[in-house]
Design a protein that fits this description.
11% of the residues lie in helices and 30% in strands. By secondary structure, it is mostly beta strands. A five-stranded mixed β-sheet has the order 5-4-13-8-9. Strands 6, 7, 10, 11 and 12 form a five-stranded antiparallel β-sheet that branches. Strands 19-18-22-23-24 form a five-stranded antiparallel β-sheet, with helices on one face. The N and C termini lie close together (10 Å). It binds the ligand Nc1nc2c(c(=O)[nH]1)N[C@H]1C(S)=C(S)[C@@H](COP(=O)(O)O)O[C@H]1N2 and molybdenum atom.
């Protein structure tokens, strides 16, 4: 343990007042007001005049304009950057389409749908092309799953904890219901040659992003998605068609898909060699990791919020997900990991999708460290930061999935801390 870890531990032990703080069930007090039991004499303005017009496409209330994706893009490299889902402002599990995170390598192409085609070629018996009209005739499926960038949460590799709101450090992950054609149907129609083991996917953006995908995954649960939460894909999320590979890291979910070329080996493109690959402490490299490992995050209370008034009952709430399957358990600690209590999982718990968890917490005004720890159905347990750094070394940039710690001060302020 380094000095700062020992210091935070010591500070915690000095300040913690434990005992019965977390309970699976508590009898809820009443938060409602008992002072305003009559309406004011005057009707509110909005009841005295006719309401607003119909709208062709609805927008959130003007009072919700602060709920936005936060953009971090380098102006020196136009079109390259990300925007983050404000996970801390959302509840439930579905990410609204206008708030799905974005990662573009060279901007959002302005594709005219009836001029776009998808080509399937390479090691197939019969190369095929598909336009939007032909795709609409295929059987479609819907499934809810998350997509997470391999670079999500990568500020966790820094030596000091960044003080960003939950979504603006961990929101390169979103969860949507995708509808489209199972890739298996299209590939089998083209006829897969026995030597084919990989597919090279290419996007129709100015980056012409390309990446190698094991054929096995495409024949398993991959989808050519055309719809996102019931409407056509948003341009920024791949309009008019994208790959969705449930549970596999963002980069493989190629947007604006224009080609799948079947091959016998990977192409060794930029994004599977210099990126998304990491040097380990023993000198070997981790490559083609594909799966997003289990992860969880307390979204409320979280940094940027406060525990406003007095000590009392607060609802701890957050999200858990795993690229290997269903979340089977989320535990919560309020004392920096010494004691853990199971949170309630809000059903339905879906495979490779966000699961909302919650647990009431009786905060008695004490110094606390809030953490959540996810376990998935394979038995994989989300690691502490210490364990993750020990296994993966200090040169990491991708695939950070450690437990996140929120420090609650006696004043109710919330900070991001390491060392637990
Ligand atoms: N054609 C293309 N596909 C792409 C990208 C891109 O820049 N171009 N970015 C990839 C990366 S790194 C991620 S994390 C996801 C992001 O998907 P989203 O923007 O819909 O959230 O798309 C992937 N597919
Ligand atoms: Mo990504």
């Amino acid at each position: 343990m380094n000095d700062s870890i020992i210091q935070s531990r010591r500070k915690f032990l000095q300040k913690a007042a434990l005992g019965g703080a977390l309970a699976g069930t508590v009898s809820l007090p009443v938060w409602a007001n008992s002072d305003k039991l009559e309406f004011p004499d005057d009707l509110p303005e909005w009841m005295r005049i006719p309401g607003g017009d119909f709208s062709n496409y609805g927008q959130p209330s003007p009072h919700e304009q602060q709920v936005i994706r936060w953009i971090s893009a380098n102006p020196a490299a136009p079109g390259n950057g990300v925007s983050w889902t404000p996970l801390h402002d959302l509840k439930g599990t579905i990410t609204p389409n206008g708030l799905h995170y974005e990662r573009h390598h060279n901007g959002v192409p302005q594709i005219v749908p009836d001029q776009h085609i998808l080509l399937i070629d390479g090691l197939v018996n019969k190369p095929l092309s598909f336009d939007m009209k032909s795709l609409e005739r295929y059987p479609m499926v819907s499934r809810t799953c998350f997509i997470e960038c391999g670079g999500n949460s990568n500020s966790g590799w820094r030596s000091n904890p960044i003080q960003s709101q939950a979504g603006y450090a961990h929101g390169l992950v979103s969860n949507a219901e995708w509808t489209g054609v199972p890739l298996k149907i299209l590939l089998e129609e083209a006829g897969i040659k026995p030597t084919a083991k990989w597919a090279i996917a290419e996007g129709a953006d100015a980056a012409a992003l390309n990446i190698s995908i094991p054929l096995e995954k495409l024949l398993d649960d991959a989808m050519l998605a055309l719809y996102q939460n019931g409407e056509r894909l948003r341009p920024e999320n791949g309009y008019p068609m994208r790959l969705v590979l449930p549970g596999w890291e963002g980069i493989l979910n190629v947007k604006w898909l224009r080609q799948l070329r079947l091959t016998d080996e990977p192409i060794m493109s930029r994004d599977e060699t210099s990126q998304y690959t990491e040097l380990l402490p023993d000198g070997t490299a981790r490559q083609f990791t594909f799966v997003n490992e289990a992860k969880s995050l307390i979204t409320s209370p979280s940094l940027g919020m406060m525990l406003p008034d007095n000590p009392g009952i607060y609802q701890i709430s957050g999200l858990a997900w795993s690229g290997r399957g269903k979340i089977s358990r989320v535990e919560i600690s309020v004392d920096g990991g010494d004691n853990w209590v199971d949170a309630e999982l809000h059903g339905p718990v879906l495979d490779k999708a966000f699961t909302r968890f919650s647990l009431p917490w009786h905060w008695q005004g004490e110094y606390a460290i809030l953490q959540s720890r996810a376990t998935d159905e394979t038995g994989y347990v989300q690691p502490t930061r210490e364990v993750l750094v020990e296994n993966r070394g200090k040169h990491g940039f991708f695939h950070y999935n450690a437990i996140v710690s929120w420090e609650i001060t006696e004043e109710g302020d919330i900070n991001h801390v390491y060392g637990f």
